[in-house]
Structures are given as C-alpha cells and as structure tokens.
Write a structure and sequence with these properties.
Blueprint: E1 5-8, E2 27-32, E3 40-45, E4 54-60, E5 74-77, E6 91-96, E7 101-105, E8 114-117, E9 121-128, E10 131-135, E11 138-142, E12 146-150, E13 155-160, E14 165-171, E15 199-200, E16 211-220, E17 223-231, E18 236-241, E19 246-249, E20 268-272, E21 275-280, E22 283-284, E23 304-311, E24 324-328, H1 340-344, E25 349-350, E26 353-359, E27 364-365
Parallel strand pairs: 8-16
Antiparallel strand pairs: 1-18, 2-3, 3-18, 4-17, 5-24, 6-7, 6-27, 7-14, 8-13, 9-12, 9-14, 10-11, 10-13, 12-19, 15-19, 16-17, 20-21, 21-26, 22-25, 23-24, 23-26
Bound molecules: fe (ii) ion (FE2).
Residues 298, 300, 305, 328, 334 line the site of fe (ii) ion.
C-alpha cells in the first residue's frame, strides 16, 4: 500500500547494527518491487533469510485452457465447485490471461504449511468464512466481505475458523487503489470511495524463534518448490515501509450514485496492469424522476467483463444465481435481459453485492471451468418479442 507502516522493533537508522539481547546481529532484509524503484519494506529477521535446509521440486503449474469456440456470453456455477482442502490447494482456476487469473476456493481446513507466491500478487475476496492470514509482516484477521491483498514475496499461512469461500484474483502486476483517486503524493483523495482509514495493515507481529522443520511452498517460474527451513519463517522482530499485505472490506466501499445511471468505473476498487477490480455494493438507485436504474446495453470494447455474484438480487441478470460467474467477452454487446429494464423502473435501491474484474485482453476458460458452465446463459436474452 502506498502509505508508510511499521510494526515491532527497529534500529533508529537503516543499515546499522541492530542486536539481539545476546549481542548477535539481527539480519536485515530489504524487500522491494521493481529493483529498488517500487514499494519497499525493510525487515529484521532472527535467522538468516536465505537459510533453507532442503529444496524439492513439486512440479510445474499446468493450467489447461479450452478452445473458446464461438463468441458468446458464458456463465459458470461455482456453487458446485467441490469443497475441501486448505485454501491454496482448494483453489480452482476458471479464467485467465497473461495479466490475471481468476478462480474460486472452498477450503474446509487451515494450512499446515506456509506459502509464498514469488511471481504474482494474490487478492482473496472472502465471500464466506473468517480466519487469520499470518505473515512475516504480522497478522491479518479477516471476515466475510474482506479483500485480502498479498504482495509477491509474502510468506503466509491462512488459518480458518471453519469452512470458507473465496473468489481469488492472481496477477503478476501490483494490485493498488486506482491512480485517479490519489494525489501526487499517493494519498487517497476526497472523492475516492474509500480512504486510508479503511485499509487494514498487518497487526500483532507474532515473533517465532523456534527451530525445527517448517515447510514453505514457493510458487515462481511457473512451478512449485518445497523449501524445508530449519527455523520458523515468521522470525521478523520489526519492519517498516510501504510494502506489506493489507485488507479492505467491500462493506467499506462507499458507492457513488447519481440522478441518472452511473458508469461502471464508479465501482472501481483496485487497478492492476491491464485489468481493474470493481465492487457492486448495496446502494440507492438513480433518482431522476424518469431514470432507468438498470444498466443500458453496452459494448465493452477492448474489455472482457467478469462478475462474481456474491449476495442479493441481481436486477439486470436472468439465469444468474448466487456464486455464479458471468463472462461477457469483448466484441458482443450485453445488457439487461428482456423485462429487466422495465422491472427496474421505480426501484429505489439494490442490495446486490458482486465483484467485477474487467480485463483489457481476452480471457481464456480453463478446461476445469467447463464442468460448471451454464450453457443456457446465452439464450437468456431471447425471451419476448426482442423489442
Ligand atoms: Fe457490463
């Protein structure tokens, strides 16, 4: 996040002697993006960070994409994605391109190993469930509605209070608040739909100095490597900087409304390279006396549009149920199904909750997603006279 945060003990000056009670040095690690030009934090470890007792290749990450076939709107029922496993192993990748991959995870147990993604940011939207993401930067308690944003290089372990359901966004680029909502210093502006106060940085730095065998699964270079450390990976006694994982609740997104229908960018929550993340939250509808609350038909030229339907009544969509994901690809207009526009007139508010990801290059559908596909979705616009 583009604001400074610190936890734990720090020396008064960076790159100076910082000693343990027994006189030994703590081990300083500078962790920065874009070769010391991007966001950076400095961490102080009890143990030498490169110290790995054993390394083992767990093999390549094989993402198999299907042939998209003829251009059409598509939908997938993730209610049927099987539950079970820990959050990382339960993840099912459904859609993806070079800029971003989208999937769901329905774990029923906590992780008993640590995980580090060295090639992508991960954003976990918590649809159901609660728990804690433990990292070297501190603890991130989370609950329903939370986006958990985890930068590359973060070594984390998620513990759950019970079963959970996530919509997971993974991107080789940084996830951050939209540029247009920030001033030249990075601070969020008054017209932004949320403020720094809504961003929850890590809290409660838990310092582990125990020795033993600790497994870290590292995702990088398109493979998973198992590292067995001879010490606990969360051995940081203090850190400061701008690079760290954080949480933002979709319920803290303040909707921007107007007299007539507001365009999708008002829902934008985060940006990545060649994609955006938007939040549709409960809000008052347009208040022009002749306004039409349902969205107009639109051609999202140069953009594939994905929506994960979390809660509420999805006014403009027929054939869509809770937990569904719709894919409206570029090159084909979409909009409310027959009758939905008329039905929206006079409505004062919506209770919908959904996450949208718009990608600027086409998304592919994984072969794993095909078994959850709702092939009848494209025909949902065919009812009535067509006028
Ligand atoms: Fe749309």
């Amino acid at each position: 996040m583009p604001f400074y945060h610190k936890l734990g003990k720090l020396p008064h000056k960076r790159h100076t002697q910082f000693r343990k009670p027994n006189g030994d040095l703590y081990r300083e690690e500078v962790m920065g993006l874009e070769g010391f030009s991007g966001l950076e934090s400095i961490l102080y470890h009890h143990f030498l960070p490169p110290r790995v007792a054993r390394v083992e290749d767990l093999g390549p990450i094989n993402t198999e994409y299907s042939d998209f076939g003829p251009l059409r709107h598509r939908a997938f029922a993730t209610a049927d994605v099987p539950a079970g496993g820990d959050p990382v192993s339960a993840r099912r990748l459904l859609l993806g391109n070079n800029d971003v991959t989208l999937g769901v995870s329905r774990p029923d147990r906590s992780m008993d190993y640590f995980y580090r993604n060295g090639q992508a940011y991960e954003t976990w939207f918590t649809h159901e469930g609660s728990g804690v993401v433990k990292t070297q930067f501190g603890q991130l308690p989370f609950k329903e509605g939370d986006y958990i944003v985890i930068p590359y290089g973060t070594t984390w372990q998620m513990t759950l209070d019970g079963e959970a359901r996530f919509f997971v966004i993974e991107s080789p680029s940084q996830i951050e608040p939209p540029t247009r909502y920030r001033n030249k210093y990075g601070q969020l502006l008054e017209h932004a739909p949320y403020s720094e106060r809504d961003i929850r940085p890590p809290e409660e730095l838990e310092i582990h100095t125990e020795r033993g065998e600790f497994e870290v699964r590292v995702k990088v270079r398109g493979r998973i490597t198992r590292h067995i450390l001879d010490h606990h990976p969360h051995d940081v006694v203090g850190w400061d900087g701008y690079l760290y994982p954080w949480v933002f609740s979709i319920h803290d997104f303040e909707p921007i409304t107007g007299r007539v229908h507001q365009p999708p960018p008002v829902h934008q929550t985060f940006q990545g390279h060649n994609f955006v993340v938007c939040s549709f939250v409960p809000r008052l509808f347009d208040y022009h006396p002749e306004g039409i609350p349902a969205p107009y038909n639109h051609s999202n030229v140069n953009s594939d549009e994905v929506i994960y339907y979390a809660e509420g009544n999805f006014m403009s969509r027929k054939g869509i149920d809770q937990y569904d994901i719709s894919l409206h690809p570029s090159g084909l207009p979409h909009g409310p199904q027959p009758g939905a526009t008329e039905a929206s007139i006079g409505k004062a508010k919506t209770d919908e909750l959904a996450v949208m990801v718009d990608t600027f290059y086409p998304l592919q559908v994984t072969t794993a997603a095909l078994e959850f596909e709702k092939p009848e979705y494209m025909a949902s616009w065919l009812e009535g006279s067509g006028e």
